[in-house]
Amino acid sequence: MTSPAQSPILVLGGTGTVGSRIVSQLASQGIPTIIASRNPPSSSSPSHVNFDWDDPYTWEPIFISKSSSSEGTTTEQDQQPSRPQPTPQPIRSIYLIAPPTLTGDRPMIEFIDFARARGVHRFILQSASSVEAGGPLMGKVHAYLRELGQRGEVEWGVLRPTWFQQNLAEQSYHKESIRSESKIYSATEDGKIPWVSADDIASVAVRALTGEEAPNTEWTVLGPELLKILSEVLGRKIVHVDLTSAELEKRHTRFGMSEEYARMMSAMDTAIKFGAENRTNDMVFSVTGVAPKKFRDYAMSVKDVWETRLQEMGIEGKT
Question: Where on the tree of life does the source sit, at the highest rank (predicted)?
Answer without folding.
Answer: Eukaryota
